[in-house]
Every structure is written in structure tokens, then in C-alpha cells.
Design brief:
Strand content: 35-45%
Number of strands: 54
Protein name: DUF3352 domain-containing protein
Largest sheet: 20 strands, antiparallel
Number of helices: 18
Low-confidence stretches: 1-30, 537-545
Keywords: Membrane, Transmembrane, Transmembrane helix
Mean pLDDT: 86
Helix content: 10-25%
Length: about 900
């Protein structure tokens, strides 16, 4: 072969090799990198943020911003961004460049006294590359910043330094990603990770979790609890560090969603337990989440409160500290026995102190399984030790409470473990089902005084509002009142960080209600963190309000019941009835005027119904209160022979009106809280068989009447799951009663057929089993709906006309609505796990409105048939609403009560 052909061949091979090399490098550069895999394993927190423009816009329209805007770090960050924009000579601002990006930020401990952040920024397009290149070039040319570079393992690290503030920022690039940090040492650690190809995400346990895809979520927040103690140790003194390390041993990591509201920041998600031996999780595992019922005893002077849900409080004894002085064997045996008597709730309170140099008082609240037994054994132990020591037993009477002393050093620690140390002496008192321990009798006297003066969480409006927004059941909770805890924080903060603490005093005290809670759900913990401004109003200044308040009717007293919709007997116009806190019932016309008022002296129970009742055939208002049945005429006056009185020992739940033969001969059926049914005729006489008809449990929902051929059937479902079908005389139909073997707390939906066997009724149990049965007493279908967690609850929600229904599931703050054939209609995460009121309105076609009311934050949200929010106005409310639709004007009209006002809100139908 001629030499020139050999040269040509070699040249082609070289070009092919260069092309392949260039292509592989180009492909490698374009290959998308999972930024989570670049984060070093020593990260304490990792924050994946997005929707920055929306978040800042929302934040600046909340009262939270008023507090955060005063933070020195955030002000300096904003100033630096403005400075960079002014020097960069670029049309696009740095904030706009970052606004829509998903940015990763990680927090790392860099020394015993400090921590630093790393930022991970993807640069995706040619335009973004051009923007960054121009920005860097302009910064290099400008004399405001010092610029330098150095090589580390073949990678160039660039540093910009602001001599005026002595702040610096270093960065390097990797596959179209910019990695930045004030610490070049952290960047070098990431470069080593890349060179070793250690591409494993620190959040690998949550690879399928991404809360940013949900509405109004602005960040995924990852917490590594194994690294958290080292971070906390930067701020607090050494004496607290062992306890913090122990408590951090409940979980190894969390992935939480970050949201913000007008007066709070909150994070919700799940945590994986710490499975290493001798951890807090090992001592707490397998426990059922418990409600906190201690709030009636907890003083408003508490600074920090730790709450544990334990079937056996003695399990915490496994957290051991320094060896305590030995007790005589018989006393040790009695102490061991006593520790077994406590279970349920266990709380450790640190009280407010006004002297930063003094240790805060501690109070232990321990629920006793049998309080009298626990107190008896405590008294016996105290007496025997006093006899042995030849000392006089301590006894002090404080009102109805007796304070005694156990002369054993660190007695709470012997009962409940090292967390409960710090009791040189131990005094105790029985309060309700709890035994309360303190280091001195003065502390117990103050606890009793606060309880008797109702200066407790359970009576505090602010604290109750806060607790409504926290988890109602948990395994472990931390509650902090930063105002009460300020002196305690000053005492325990490291000297190096005290200046920083004082600098941020206003911010810390502003978010004065803080909680961190864990609630076991199968193999994980549902976790929530809440930072709340107690005094901020929970309203938002949102523009483009599509929900217009058309009318407001004020009242002199707070409204407590309603609105109840009715039609005017005169002109058939829509009117509303409401009841105030003085038990006065008011009627409001369509124009918003109060047309009459009537004092009832009792609260309305159930709905207010209308019917042409009595010999004159005129429409009346009928309803029940606790002990009476009322019938009012169109002017609000009681009809002759009304009200019907029932014994004071009864507590009525509701009134049901029955017209068996559709001839206007109405029967009045009421049920009470013991399961008794009374039926009256129009003359006020009790009907035979209903004098009363006593059932085994309380009625779960309003009895429902079916006309099947010539038969009248009244279906009654009890809370314990028993189902009755009754005739006019209260006799049961064949096949009834039967039990569905589950609790019921919601409505039922039925259709009358040609006979009993073809008449079907559907209901949903509290735990999500959909059951259909016929009026012959046969169960036709049972279907178990998916329960995402053990405490999920279900309801059957009939629509306003009673012609259809949906199924609502509530689970850890999430509401899911399902159609009768179990198809998903709507799913939303809400701010709290407080009870939600779900309503379903159908006005034909696509005129569907789902109404969900959060009773904790007291807000109502509207959604259309496509599950999209209706309007962007916050509706303050905590009661069911009334909603009507005007087909001519194509307007919805919503009526609701809040405070002392009835409001009518209008909005147009969406096309």
C-alpha cells in the first residue's frame, strides 16, 4: 500500500478518535447530575428549594416577613445581591436568574464553634451559561471584589472576596452545575467525592419523595439526626449535650415539606427511626401515638415542655446516667414497683425563670394507671424511709391538694431515667389522674395556683389556637415558648454565640410558639415542626379577590350556631337563622336585616327544619335544643302547646321530621346522647313504641325514612355499628338489627326499591370499610378503602340535595375525596392535622363545589369540579357553610358565621 494512503488512514483514525473523545466529553457534560449525590455525608440539613419567586412574593405579603426582614444575615444577603447586580452590568437580575431554579443548599459543621453552607446550582441552557460567564467576567474586572483561583485535584476553585465585609465565596463547576460555598475546604471535600465517584445520595431513603410537586410547597428539607447533635453543640453548653444526643436518637433522618402561612412556618413529612442499639427509638418503639390531655394542668409559665406517650414510663429508665447512691434493697424494690404504675402520658416541664444564672425549675407530670394506688405506694415508701431515718414526714395541705415528700435523692430519675435528673429533693402531689413531682413545695404550690386560676394551656386562647395546629396525637413532642424561655436560653447558650442570640432577640421572641413532634405511622414517624407568631393575625393580603363579601350582618354577641337556611313563608325568599352565645335565635332576611329574635335559653341541636306543620297548614320552623322541641311561626313565636319538654336527664342530639303517608300528618322524632328515640305526633303526644325506644348506643347520624311500597322504614345506625330498620310502631323488620362490627360517625345514602330486598343503603365505617345492605337485613357488599396510616378516618358525605354522595378520607392533614365508585375527585394537604369539615354541593352539571373547613386554623377552602381552588381569598370560618346557586345570574352565594357576624359571599360560576 502506498505511504500516502497509510497517512490518510492514520489521519482518519486520529480524527475519529478526537471526534469520539470530544463527543464523549460533550455527552458527559450534558448528562444530568443528581445534585443530592454530591452532598457530603456529614450534612446536617439539606434544603432543595424551588418556586423562589412565588415564595418571596408570598412571604412579603405575610407578617412573617416583618420579622425575617430584620435578620442581619438576610439583609446582608439582599444587599450583596443588589451590589452584584449593579456591578454585573447585566439586564437580568441575579434574583430573576435564581427565581425558577431548583437550588440545593446543605449545612455542615466545620469546627466546634462554627458551621457553613454549600449551594448547588444547575446551569441548564446556553442563555444561563452566557449570563454566568458575563457575571463572572464583570466581577473579575471590578475592583470591589478580590479575585483568586487555585487548583485542587485537577479542578479549578475560584474565590471572590469582598474586602469591605471580609466575606468570601468560592466555587467550581461540574457537568453544568455550579457548586458554591464560603468555605473552600467544603468544596475540596465535594471534589474528593466526585473523583472517588462516591455518587450516593444522603437522602437515598427518600428517593421517591418530592414535595415540591405539591401546591404551595417551597422546599424539601432533609435532616440528618446523626449529625444534628454536633450542630446543636455549637450553640449550647456541654451540660445539655448528652440529653440532646439521646433525644436525637429517635430518628436517623427526616424529609419534610416546607410551607409558610401568614403567621407561621411549618414543616411536615416523615422520619426513619434510628435502629442503633440503646437509642431513644429503642426505648420508645412500638408505642401508639397518644393525645396530650395534660393541657388542663400545664401552666402558662412553662418555657420548655417535653411530652412522651408511653404505655410504660419506666422504659425511659434505660437511658442511664451517673450511678446514683444505693438504696436499701426493700426501698429499691418499692421504687421499681412504683415505676411500673405510671404509663400513658409523661411530661417534663422547665418553668420560666427571671434569673439567667439560676437553673430553671423542673416539674414532672406522670400519668398513673391507678392514681390512688400510686399515691398510696408513694406515701408508704416516704413513711418507711422517714421511720428509718427518724425524721418527720413532710405534709402540706394546699386547698384540696396534699403535698408530700419522698426523702430520696433524684427520685424522678430512679423512676423515669436520666432525662428526669436534677431533683435534689422530691415533693409530689396528685392532680386528676397525674402525679406531679417537683424539687420544692413552692413549685408545686405555683402549679396548683395556676390550675385553680385557670392560668393553664387548656384555658389560654393563644395556646389552644397553637395546640389546634399541632399534631393531636404523638409519641414525642417538644414545645417551646421562646418568650418564657429567653432567660433559660441565655443561661445555656455557649459564650461564643451569646452575642448572636442577643442580636436576634426580637426574631426569637416573635416566633414564640414552637413545636417539634413525632407520631409513629407503621415503620416511620410522621414529623411536624411549627414556628408560630402568637400575636400575628392569620389573614393574608391577597390581590385579585374573586370572592366578594356582598352583605355583612353584625350582632351584639358572638355567633355559635348556624347559619341554617330557610325560605320565607311570605315570599319564599332565602333567609338565614343563627344563634348567638346568649342562646338567642335570630332570623335574617334576604336583604340582610334581622326580622325577629327569640331567646331559647339552650343551644340548638342539629338542623333547623321547615314544614307545613299544624292544623293551619302554614310553614313553621322546627328544631331541638338539649331538653325541648321547638316550633316557631313565621314571626319567631312559639306555636301553641310548644315547646315540648323532655326530662332534664336527657341531652337531645337532633330532630327528624317524618311524614309517613305524605299527607301533612308529621311526626317528630328526636334522639338523645344515650341512644333513646322519642316520637311525637302533632298534638305533642308520645307515639306507642317510642316512649322511648331505647337502643344500645348513641345514634351516629340522623335516622332516614324510606317508603317502600306501602311500608314505612326508618333506618337507624348506631355509633357502635348496630343497624336497625323500624316501622311506625318502633318494631324491627326481619333481619334487623345486625352489626357491621365497626364504628360509624358519618352519613348514609339509600335508595328505595320496589321491595325491601331491592332497597339498598350504603354507609362508610370510621376506618374506611364501605358497606352496602338492603332493607331485608342482608349485607350485599363490603369494600375496604386504602388506609395510608392507622389513624386515617373516613366519612360518607351526602351532597346538598341528597341525590348523591362522596367519601372523604382524612389522614395526617391530608384530605382525599372519592366518588361512590372510589375514583379520586380531590386530594389536598392542609396546614394542620386538626379536624376538617367536608361539604359537597351539586347544583347540576359541572356546578360542583367541594368545601373543606379547617377547624384549627379556622379557614374554609372552596374547590370546583376539577379540584381547582375557587377564588384566592382566605375565608375565616370554623363551622359548616350554606351554599346556594342562582341559575339566572350564574352566581354562587355562600353564607357563613365568624365572630359576631353573618357574611354573604358571592362568586361567579367558572366557565
Amino acid at each position: 500500500m502506498p505511504k500516502k494512503y497509510i497517512l490518510y488512514l492514520v489521519g482518519l483514525l486520529v480524527l475519529a478518535g478526537l471526534g469520539y473523545y470530544g463527543f464523549s466529553k460533550w455527552t458527559e457534560a450534558r448528562e444530568k447530575v443528581d445534585l443530592w449525590t454530591l452532598v457530603p455525608d456529614d450534612a446536617v440539613f439539606v434544603i432543595e428549594s424551588g418556586n423562589h419567586a412565588d415564595m418571596i412574593d408570598r412571604l412579603k405579603r405575610t407578617q412573617v416577613w416583618e420579622s425575617l426582614s430584620e435578620v442581619t444575615y438576610l439583609r446582608r444577603l439582599e444587599e450583596n445581591m443588589v451590589l452584584i447586580d449593579s456591578l454585573a452590568d447585566n439586564r437580568e437580575t441575579l434574583f430573576k436568574f435564581l427565581a425558577s431554579k431548583r437550588v440545593l443548599s446543605s449545612v455542615h459543621v466545620t469546627s466546634k464553634n462554627d458551621f457553613e453552607l454549600v449551594f448547588y446550582l444547575p446551569i441548564s441552557t446556553v442563555k444561563e451559561h452566557r449570563y454566568m460567564r458575563t457575571l463572572v467576567e464583570n466581577l473579575e474586572k471590578n475592583g470591589e471584589f478580590e479575585h483568586s483561583t487555585h487548583q485542587y485535584q485537577g479542578t479549578t476553585i475560584t474565590e471572590f472576596r469582598n474586602p469591605a465585609t471580609r466575606q468570601s465565596l468560592s466555587y467550581f463547576t461540574y457537568r453544568n452545575n455550579l457548586i458554591m460555598s464560603p468555605s473552600a475546604v467544603l468544596l475540596e471535600g465535594i471534589i474528593r467525592r466526585i473523583k472517588r465517584k462516591q455518587f450516593v445520595s444522603v437522602a437515598a431513603d427518600y428517593k421517591n419523595i418530592n414535595y415540591l410537586n405539591q401546591e404551595k410547597v417551597y422546599a424539601n428539607v432533609f435532616i440528618n439526626y446523626r449529625n444534628l447533635p454536633a450542630f446543636l453543640n455549637i450553640f449550647v453548653k456541654q451540660e445539655l449535650q448528652p440529653d440532646m444526643e439521646y433525644l436525637c436518637g429517635l430518628s436517623r433522618n427526616s424529609m419534610l415539606e416546607f410551607k409558610l402561612e401568614n403567621n407561621k412556618l411549618f414543616l411536615n413529612g416523615f422520619s426513619n427511626p434510628e435502629t442503633l442499639s440503646q437509642t431513644f427509638y429503642n426505648h420508645l418503639s412500638g408505642q401508639k401515638p397518644r393525645p396530650m390531655e395534660l393541657e388542663q394542668l400545664l401552666s402558662n409559665r412553662i418555657a420548655l415542655f417535653l411530652h412522651f406517650g408511653l404505655d410504660k414510663a419506666r422504659r425511659l429508665r434505660q437511658y442511664n446516667g451517673a450511678k446514683l447512691p444505693e438504696l436499701r434493697p426493700e426501698f429499691k424494690a418499692q421504687t421499681d414497683t412504683l415505676s411500673q404504675l405510671f404509663g400513658g402520658e409523661l411530661g417534663l416541664a422547665y418553668m420560666q425563670t427571671y434569673n439567667p444564672n439560676a437553673s430553671p425549675e423542673k416539674v414532672v407530670f406522670a400519668e398513673a394507671k391507678v392514681p390512688d394506688n400510686a399515691i398510696k405506694r408513694l406515701n408508704t415508701l416516704a413513711l418507711e424511709i422517714n421511720l428509718l431515718n427518724k425524721t418527720v414526714p413532710y405534709k402540706e395541705q394546699k386547698g384540696n391538694y396534699t403535698i408530700r415528700m419522698v426523702p430520696v435523692k433524684e427520685f424522678p430519675q430512679r423512676l423515669f431515667g436520666k432525662l428526669f435528673r436534677g431533683f435534689e429533693q422530691c415533693y409530689f402531689v396528685a392532680m386528676q389522674q397525674y402525679v406531679v413531682f417537683a424539687d420544692n413545695p413552692a413549685t408545686l404550690r405555683s402549679v396548683i395556683n395556676d390550675f385553680e386560676a385557670e392560668n393553664v394551656w387548656g384555658k389560654s386562647v393563644a395556646q389552644k389556637a397553637f395546640l389546634e395546629e399541632t399534631q393531636h396525637e404523638a409519641n414525642f413532642s417538644v414545645f417551646l415558648n421562646s418568650e418564657n424561655a429567653w432567660q433559660m436560653l441565655s443561661r445555656y447558650v455557649n459564650n461564643e454565640k451569646r452575642e448572636s442570640l442577643l442580636r436576634n432577640e426580637s426574631l426569637i421572641k416573635d416566633f414564640n410558639q414552637i413545636s417539634w413532634q413525632f407520631s409513629q405511622v407503621e415503620k416511620q414517624y410522621y414529623t411536624s415542626i411549627l414556628l408560630r407568631q402568637q400575636d400575628a393575625q392569620a389573614t393574608e393580603d391577597l390581590p385579585s379577590d374573586t370572592l366578594e363579601v356582598e352583605k355583612t350582618t353584625p350582632f351584639p354577641s358572638k355567633l355559635t350556631a348556624g347559619p341554617f337556611a330557610a325560605r320565607s313563608p311570605l315570599n319564599r325568599g332565602l333567609e338565614m337563622l343563627v344563634q348567638d352565645s346568649n342562646f338567642v335565635l335570630h332570623n335574617i332576611s334576604y336583604e340582610g336585616r334581622i326580622t325577629w329574635s327569640d331567646s331559647l335559653n339552650e343551644a340548638v341541636k342539629g338542623e333547623i327544619l321547615q314544614a307545613p306543620f299544624g292544623s293551619d297548614g302554614k310553614t313553621k320552623y322546627l328544631f331541638a335544643t338539649s331538653h325541648r322541641i321547638h316550633c316557631l311561626d313565621r314571626s319567631g313565636k312559639e306555636v301553641e302547646s310548644f315547646p315540648y319538654y323532655l326530662p332534664d336527664s336527657l341531652r337531645l342530639q337532633r330532630l327528624t321530621i317524618l311524614d309517613f303517608n305524605k299527607n301533612g300528618d308529621h311526626k317528630l322524632l328526636v334522639d338523645d346522647d344515650l341512644g333513646n328515640l322519642f316520637m311525637f305526633n302533632e298534638a305533642g303526644d308520645l307515639m306507642p313504641g317510642w316512649e322511648p325506644l331505647s337502643l344500645e348506643s348513641r345514634v351516629a347520624i340522623a335516622p332516614q325514612h324510606f317508603r317502600v311500597g306501602s311500608k314505612n322504614v326508618i333506618v337507624v345506625v348506631l355509633e357502635n355499628g348496630l343497624v336497625y330498620a323500624l316501622d311506625e310502631e318502633g318494631e324491627t323488620y326481619p333481619g334487623f338489627p345486625f352489626s357491621i362490627r365497626a364504628s360509624v360517625r358519618s352519613g348514609m345514602f339509600g335508595k328505595a326499591g320496589s321491595n325491601l330486598r331491592k332497597s339498598e343503603v350504603t354507609l362508610v365505617t370510621l376506618r374506611g370499610e364501605v358497606i352496602t345492605f338492603n332493607l331485608a337485613g342482608e349485607i350485599l357488599k363490603r369494600h375496604q378503602l386504602v388506609r395510608p396510616e392507622r389513624n386515617a378516618t373516613f366519612e360518607l358525605i351526602p351532597e346538598n340535595s341528597g341525590k348523591s354522595y362522596l367519601i372523604a378520607r382524612q389522614s395526617l392533614g391530608r384530605v382525599t375525596l372519592l366518588s361512590p365508585d372510589f375514583k379520586l375527585l380531590l386530594e389536598r394537604n392542609f396546614f394542620t392535622s386538626s379536624r376538617k369539615i367536608v361539604q359537597y354541593f351539586l347544583f347540576g352539571g359541572d356546578n360542583v363545589i367541594y368545601v373543606i373547613t379547617e377547624t384549627g386554623p379556622q379557614k374554609t377552602y372552596l374547590f370546583d369540579v376539577k379540584a381547582q381552588p375557587v377564588g384566592n381569598r382566605v375565608i375565616e370560618n370554623r363551622n359548616p357553610v350554606k351554599l346556594v346557586y342562582n341559575d339566572i345570574t350564574r352566581e354562587f352565594q355562600l353564607y357563613k358565621i365568624f365572630g359576631s357576624e353573618l357574611k354573604k359571599i358571592t362568586f361567579e360560576r367558572k366557565n
